[in-house]
Amino acid sequence: MKPLKTLVALGLAGALLSTPALAQREGVNVGQNSVFTGLVSAEQMEATALQQYRQVLREAAQQNALAPANNPQLQRLRAIAERIIPHAIDWNPRAKDWKWEVNLIGSKQVNAWCMPGGKIAFYTGILNQLKLSDDEVAAVMGHEIAHALREHARERAGKNAATSLGANVLAQVLGVGAIGQQVIGGGAQLLSLSFSRENETEADLVGLELAARAGYDPRAAVTLWQKMNAAAQGAPPQWLSTHPSGNTRIAGIERNLPKVMPLYERAKQGG
Ligand SMILES: [Zn+2]
After folding, report:
1. Which residue positions in the chain have pLDDT lower than 50?
2. How far is the CA of 246 from the centre of ligand 1 (A)?
3. What residues are neighbours of ligand 1 (ion), with CB under 5 Å?
4. What residue spans define the domains of the chain?
5. Residue 140 Cα, ligand 1 centroid: separation in angstroms?
6. How far is CA 110 from the centre of its chain?
7. DSSP 234
8. Contact at 8 Å (CB) between 83 and 12?
9. How far is the CA of 147 from the centre of ligand 1 (A)?
10. Handedness of CA 252, 83, 67, 121 (dihedral sign)
11. How many C-beta neighbours within 10 Å does residue 126 have?
């Protein structure tokens, strides 16, 4: 036995355990945002998103398809968003300055998205065809908000910049904002953007946690994807074309449920 050595080891272990930076954060673990996000300015991304959002709303309004503020489904969506949004700031400090918006578009499309900067749209098709419960709406919304918080569109634009310009050019150009403008200005449609499998997994997990902290049952993500699977048997819904479902996805969600269920239980008790 070497008591001194043991004591030192115990002390060291104790110090490590009590260091906040090393303590395990409660909830899901998805690591840092991609380094590629740094190649494009967040401000520019959000400004482009705002432009495209306004255009979508304008077109919907012209077709009499933009739900008015007193629409019960829209009010339901906004109430759910109001509970989720306070938990968004933990994932991205910019989110506290975002001017969040939620709108409902009358369309058969099974679709929903959240653009950079917190601009959310749901289509009546996803609510009606899938007959979503509030918990399932929170699962969709949490997932889409997670894409915005983790800046997946910005990451994608950054990757495009890196690919199209090449490392040499990147190294010479210190004002990366200019690259961003070129890439974003190149007609990137934020609406139809499809993300990588890694981005999708991230959005699933962050979405689970957002919903749970807002007091929505995170297990609804499982029933949501089961409904999506069933809907895919017919004509593939819009959301499914950018969101491949399947058993792998559902298994990943189920594996992470134990990490967020305590958050949900607490949120429910807290009212
Ligand atoms: Zn997604």
Report:
1. 1-2, 4, 7-22, 167-168, 171, 174, 176-187
2. 13
3. 200, 203
4. 38-268
5. 9
6. 18
7. S
8. no
9. 6
10. negative
11. 25
- What residue type is 194 in one-letter code? S
Residue 3 structure tokens: 């008591």
Give the predicted TM-score (pTM) of the model: 0.82
- Burial classification of residue 183, based on how many CB atoms lie within 10 Å of its CB (0-12 exposed, 13-18 middle, 19 or more buried): buried
Residue reference for tokens 């997994």: 201
The one-letter code for the residue type at 195 is F
With residue 123 as reference, give the H or E element that holds it.
strand 119-123
Interacting residues of 248 by C-beta distance below 8 A, sequence separation 6+: none
Residue 205 and residue 147 in contact, taking contact as beta carbons nearer than 8 Å: no
Tell me which residue of 45, 142, 135, 155 sits closest to 86, measured CA to CA. Answer: 142
One-letter identity of residue 88: A
Asked whether the beta carbons of 204 and 143 are under 8 A apart, the reply is yes
Report the distance separating Cα 22 and Cα 31, nearest Å.
13
CA dist., res. 138 & res. 143, Å (int): 8
| Contact partners, residue 100, CB within 8 Å, separation at least 6 | 81, 85, 118, 119, 120
